[in-house]
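Weekly sync, protein design subgroup
Attendees: M.S., D.O., the rotation student, P.L. (late)

Item 1: inverse folding check
M.S. brought a backbone from last month's batch and wanted to see whether the design step gives back something sensible before we order anything. D.O. pointed out we never logged the input encoding, so this time it goes straight into the notes. Structure tokens as presented (129 positions):
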């Protein structure tokens, strides 16, 4: 069962998961995170991977659960992965995806996720060069 399907629906009824095979991310992948300075509590993290079909982008901490942002991926397909392009792609996402809390707004978390994704995409893109 593909990981995305498992994450969305879980294991079929009556089955037991005995193994989980995760392919290596490869060199065209990167992870960025940030935490509250006073408590070191994680605020937001992004994981990205650049594939021949375009980028894959996931966010956690700023969303209700770890979430792949397919809309952002589609808007960034073909590049460039400049900070401006990535932030524009994130601005187009519904703010309801981002869960405010601990003194942060949904607007701030959406922007923060975009900044972290831009950094990660630029690092992953440089690894391909």
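Designed sequence read out in the meeting:
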């Amino acid at each position: 069962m593909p990981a995305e399907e498992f994450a969305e629906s879980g294991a079929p009824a009556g089955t037991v998961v005995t193994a989980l095979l995760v392919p290596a991310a490869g060199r065209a992948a990167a992870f960025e995170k940030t935490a509250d300075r006073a408590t070191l509590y994680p605020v937001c993290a992004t994981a990205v991977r650049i594939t021949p079909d375009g980028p894959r982008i996931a966010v956690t901490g700023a969303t209700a659960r770890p979430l792949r942002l397919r809309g952002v991926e589609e808007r960034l397909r073909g590049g460039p992965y400049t900070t401006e392009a990535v932030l524009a792609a994130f601005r187009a996402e519904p703010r309801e995806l981002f869960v405010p809390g601990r003194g942060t707004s949904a607007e701030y978390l959406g922007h923060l996720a975009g900044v972290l994704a831009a950094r990660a995409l630029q690092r992953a893109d440089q690894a391909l060069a």
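Discussion: The chain has one domain: 26-128. Residues 39 and 62 are 16 Å apart (CA to CA).
Action: P.L. to compare against the previous round before Friday.
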